[in-house]
Amino acid sequence: xxxxxxxxxxxxxxxxxxxxxxxxxxxxxxxxxxxQPTITKKKxxxxxxxxxxxxxxxxxxPDLEEWVAKKPENVVFYRVPAIFSPAWxxxxxxxxxxxxxxxxxxxxxxxxxxxxxxxxxxxxxLNNKKLIQAFFARFSVSAEDFNNTFDSFSVNTKVxxxxxxxxxxxxEGVPSLIVNGKYRTDGPMxxxxxxxxxxxxxxxxxxxxK
Length: 210
Prior knowledge:
The chain is of the alpha+beta class. Helix content is 55%, strand content 11%.
């Protein structure tokens, strides 16, 4: 019995070591150098960088939403639209316009999901301001409110900041996940969208110990 108990303990330890060893810096995730400041110092900050036109971001969304609903209490989650071209900047402007108009208040994600669906399910490109304005009208946003917000100083500032963060986080593609401004992972590193979330959980545990 003692031998069997010893073997069970040894096997558990080995399995734990294998699970830990399966996620390594430089392979499943990389450091952000230099580390970037976070918005809050009291919780672990997770940032998703995405683009509405990216199919990988679209397919990650349901898994990410499920993860966000169950995230640890010491974790705060933010979305930041990545910007590497004028097309990406246009969608980033739409994202921040929606936020400014309250379409993301109280954790609402209907607009976010619908924008993804419009592009990837309905095959509408939403690649100019007129098409985006028509899309906003579905959410009871008047043309005046849309135009005043879309071209506002506040939205301009947020779009410029998103473009800066896209470079500072040193991302190589989207979707990318940033942990506490220190670490980043993406689909190729994590081994797909499920793998990304496993790496995310690993890095949160790593940061929680500090």
